[in-house]
Fold these 2 entries.
Entry 1:
Amino acid sequence: MNIFDIIDKEITRFDRVYILGHIQPDGDCIGSSLGLYYLIKENYGRECIVVNEEIEKYSYLGSWTLPGSIDYSGSLVIQVDNSVRNRSCDCSFMDASVVIKIDHHIVIDSYGTYNEERMTSSCCEIIASDAVEKGLKITQDAATCLYTGMSTDSGNFMYSGVSSSTLFIASKLLETKIDVSKFLSKAYERNLNTVKFIAEAYNRMKVTEKGVLWIYIPQEIEDKYSLSPDMVSEALSCMRNIKEHPLYVLFSDLFGKIRVEFRSQGIAVNEVASSFGGGGHKFASGARLKSAEEIPLVLDALDRLL
């Protein structure tokens, strides 16, 4: 079902409409939430409240409200790019009267009143595709957000989830005359501090007996370089595209737990992520561990895939 058919049906029933993303937001999360905001504002004349955690990297796309003491009761909530309810930036969104879930991950938790779950390159692709199909007016602001999410979540259109439909929708966004080189340079730029951190991350890279590449970034390293969670994730680039090592994983300290980011080239990692309470895409997933003592368990599970 076209997501805008659902919005047509529900949006006039509510005075308050919220658009939420997931914890540790990325380009697709911010792009889809703000892109949808601009589409609704332009085509429905409604102001929505976008709720996301802070991430400076994508502040050029627009502004949003930080999660906190928001009362969602009696409201319409649109939750984007979030496969399971407990990974929302504000889990109290389930108090809403109606929840519309828009997501492109493997289906684990159909928590919405409406669940639009499709295996595409990005959540932004779903929103942009349905906007084109519906004949909605796509402003440059909306197109910039949606193209950013499509590009960043697909590895600049190089990952396996990219299809001819992905490129067709991207071309429709380009028809709005957005300046891709200008805004994507912001999405992909690094400051000098991050580059110095990546140099250290290379030196911390290890390999298991079966060939799984892994890096652990402890809190003291994060403090040394004043790293935000999204900056820590830049260390994944150290392990990407290394010959004969298709599977790699990044561990980092995060709020008293261990954040795990699984990546692979052609080997499904989502089931391993799920076994540790996480989830995500077939070749890109995440999880949380209680402590660093569990890291060997994860590495053993990944070794068994090789």
Note: Residues 54 and 66 are 7 Å apart (CA to CA).
Entry 2:
Amino acid sequence: MPNPDPAPIAGPMLHHHGTTPIGSNVIGGSHIPAAALSYPMHNTPMFSPSNAPGAHVSSTPTMSHGGYSWKATTNHSSRMLCHRGVVAGTDTGSDVYVGRSMYKGDVLPAKVIPNKNAAYICYDGAEIPVTNFEMLVRSECTWVQSRNGTVPAGAFPIGQTTSGEILYAARVHVRGGISIGKVHPSHGCCYVPYNGREESHKVYEVLVLDT
């Protein structure tokens, strides 16, 4: 029989229906297995139709290989994404981040330098400053309590049965420790390995990616 409601997982690990990322729980240093993600990195962004230099990027962030996504920002707000941004190197002592922007209908790589409130693309032999662009960022995650085989929006798909049913990553409190397992929706519970056997739990926390 599935276990009754367990004691809450103590400390900052538990976030009931929250969306605050848990920095220490970024999976594998933010590298999420590509097999579990829905969209390739070469997804077609939904940019503004304007072809002006640095035209506003109005794409909806989409998941991509390795748990990365594109976030719309500007040269005055890009610093807010530095903690998740991908650093390509340095230029005169400032970190340079990977970005992209639209120019004359092309989607082009951008050199983003948040410390200087600047970003640049190159086109037709010239370096061109842009003010609106996207930065490549790592996804973060949080744990959201759920029960009875249900999962919240954004739940991380971690596997699949032979019948095609999707399984989701989850964790439960088991006799003083934490065990990671699978939410099996059609079974109405979460299964975790513990002490040589499979245990079922009605209440659990589901891994949710914040993109």
Note: The radius of gyration is 21 Å.
